[in-house]
Design brief:
Layout: E1 7-9, H1 14-24, E2 28-31, H2 37-42, E3 50-53, E4 63-65, E5 70-74, H3 79-83, H4 86-91, H5 93-101, H6 105-108, H7 113-118, H8 126-132, E6 136-140, E7 145-149, E8 154-156, E9 159-160, E10 167-174, E11 180-187, E12 198-206, E13 213-221, E14 228-229, H9 231-237, H10 244-255, H11 268-291
Parallel strand pairs: 1-3, 2-3
Antiparallel strand pairs: 4-5, 5-10, 6-7, 6-10, 8-9, 11-12, 12-13, 13-14
Helix pairs in contact: 5-8, 9-10, 10-11
Length: about 300
């Protein structure tokens, strides 16, 4: 299928890109990896008069430590780059793991973290991982900038709080405290090129290697119109010693935070069962990671 006609722009600075967005507004689409936009344009779902490529803007693909207190991930960083990043696997495991499960190897080479968030697909991989890491996104326009928690970024399927004149430039996360471990689990019919049935991300912080849970975060996608934080399930965990029974109770509580659908990939009932099973499994993986926590050399 051929692409509809459009005018192509390739700014070389962030300021130039923001100026174009300000002038063109809703008539323009931003091109990062293109794994979603180009498909939608070929299907005639999107017909932008202008396409603004970010390929030549420096700094948007970098992963930068922030004075030892966190990291700033450029919105143009590819899933493949994030899945290979040693610091992410050590301290921000859910994001590294989610990046490694996105699409297929070829798609991961193109798909970006910014695109995965902005597209706001209910079954996207990176949103729940970012949510358990308390990530915020930096949105910039020509005249202003703002930081929005990822948990507050989504309005509905394909809808976010980003304005037509704004560009996501980075995703920022604080380093989790000691004795913290995280995990991400994706359920799909195939290992690649498949829309998820259920995605679960979890982060657990222990008082000590064998201590009680002092903080917990659980997020899910593919189970509601937007990714969701399972706050009630988190409260089940906090203050208690980890156990299979406790994780089972958290999984059961998490089902109540979701509203899965029935489609050709699975029924609502099956998805609810999998939320319980996979939440427990993901928490067990996070616990193992937390108990093996070590200071970075």
């Amino acid at each position: 299928m051929l692409l509809p006609r459009f005018e192509y722009h390739e700014p070389t600075t962030l300021e130039e890109a923001l100026k174009l967005l300000s002038e063109l507004g809703g008539n323009a689409k931003v091109l990062a990896g293109g794994t979603d936009l180009l498909v939608r344009m070929k299907q005639k779902i999107d017909r932008p008069a202008h396409v603004i490529s970010l390929a030549r803007i420096p700094g948007l693909k970098e992963v930068t430590p922030r004075n030892g207190h966190g990291i700033s991930v450029g919105a143009g960083a590819s899933a493949a780059a994030l899945s290979r990043h040693e610091l992410l696997w050590d301290r921000f495991t859910p994001l590294a793991s989610a990046s490694s499960r996105l699409g297929s190897p070829l798609i991961r080479n193109r798909a970006t973290i910014g695109g995965n968030l902005v597209n706001a697909r209910p079954a996207a991989d990176m949103p729940p991982a970012c949510m358990v890491l308390n990530a915020t996104v930096k949105l910039k326009s020509r005249s202003d900038e703002r930081d929005v928690p990822v948990a507050e970024f989504f309005r509905g399927p394909g809808e976010t709080v980003i304005e037509p004149n704004e560009l996501m430039v980075s995703v920022n996360m604080e380093t989790p405290p000691p004795w913290t471990g995280g995990a991400y689990f994706k359920l799909a019919a195939r290992k690649s090129l498949e829309i998820s049935l259920v995605n679960v991300a979890a982060l657990i912080t222990l008082k000590s290697s064998n201590g009680a849970i002092v903080d917990a975060k659980i997020a899910l996608s593919a189970v509601a119109p937007t990714p969701v934080r399972a706050y009630a399930a988190e409260q089940v965990l906090i203050g208690n010693k980890p156990s299979d029974k406790l994780f089972q109770k958290a999984g059961e509580t998490g089902v109540g935070m979701c509203s899965p659908i029935t489609d050709h990939r699975g029924t609502m009932e099956y998805r609810c069962m999998m939320i319980e099973v996979l939440t427990k499994r993901c928490l067990s993986m996070a616990l193992e990671s937390a108990r093996s926590w070590k200071p970075l050399k």
